[in-house]
Every structure is written in structure tokens, then in C-alpha cells.
């Protein structure tokens, strides 16, 4: 009961709208940075944190079916490879 009251209050307040806007803009800007090649390691790390946060919040990480999910290990693995990989990737923006 307290949780639904909290969610209702957050959806009606300006802070709830800002939270949704920041999530949408963060995802858009991170994806755009990955597409353009601007700081791909940082953008991949931020995207990896967002994906892990979403999967954790939805409870997907705690299910055995997560390992066979097409949105689980391939996305997390590819973002981890970009985040931990070499610094100079082809087609990335260099100074």
C-alpha cells in the first residue's frame, strides 16, 4: 500500500517527470554516442550499467531462463567487450 502511494506521488510530481526524461535522454545520448563513435568505452560502460539496472529491476537476473534470453547475455557481453576492450577502435572519433 505504501509503495503504490509512493509511485503515484512520484508520477504526479515534477521529480517523476524529470526522472523519466533523464532515463530517456540518457539512453538516447548513450546510443547516439555509440553510433557516432564518441568515447565508445565510456558510452558502452554507461549503457552496460543501464542494461544491468533494468534487468535487475525486472528480476530477470534471478531466472535461469535469463541465460538463454536473446536480450541478456548477448547485449551484456557486447557492451562489456566494448567497455573493457581496446581504447582505439576503428571508426571512432579521436582527438
What is the β-strand count? 0
- Helix segment tally: 4
- Please tell me the total number of domains: 1
The amount of helix comes to 55-70%
Keywords:
95 residues, mainly alpha
Description:
- The protein is mainly α and 95 residues long.
- It has one domain (2-84).
- 68% of the residues lie in helices and 0% in strands.
- The protein has four helices and no strands.
- Helix 1 (2-12) packs across helix 2 (14-36) and helix 3 (40-58) runs antiparallel to helix 4 (73-84).
- It is flat, with a radius of gyration of 17 Å.
- The N and C termini lie far apart (53 Å).
- The relative contact order is 0.11.
- The model has no long low-confidence stretch (mean pLDDT 78).
Topology:
Elements: H1 2-12, H2 14-36, H3 40-58, H4 73-84
In short:
The protein has 95 residues and is mainly alpha-helical. It is 68% helix and 0% strand.
Amino acid at each position: 500500500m505504501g509503495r503504490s502511494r509512493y509511485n503515484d506521488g512520484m508520477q504526479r510530481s515534477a521529480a517523476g517527470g524529470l526522472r523519466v526524461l533523464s532515463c530517456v535522454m540518457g539512453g538516447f545520448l548513450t546510443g547516439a554516442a555509440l553510433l557516432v563513435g564518441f568515447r565508445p568505452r565510456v558510452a558502452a560502460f554507461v549503457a552496460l550499467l543501464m542494461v544491468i539496472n533494468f534487468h535487475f529491476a525486472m528480476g530477470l537476473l534471478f531466472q535461469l531462463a535469463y541465460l538463454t534470453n536473446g536480450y541478456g547475455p548477448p547485449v551484456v557481453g557486447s557492451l562489456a567487450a566494448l567497455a573493457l576492450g581496446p581504447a582505439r577502435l576503428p571508426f571512432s572519433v579521436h582527438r
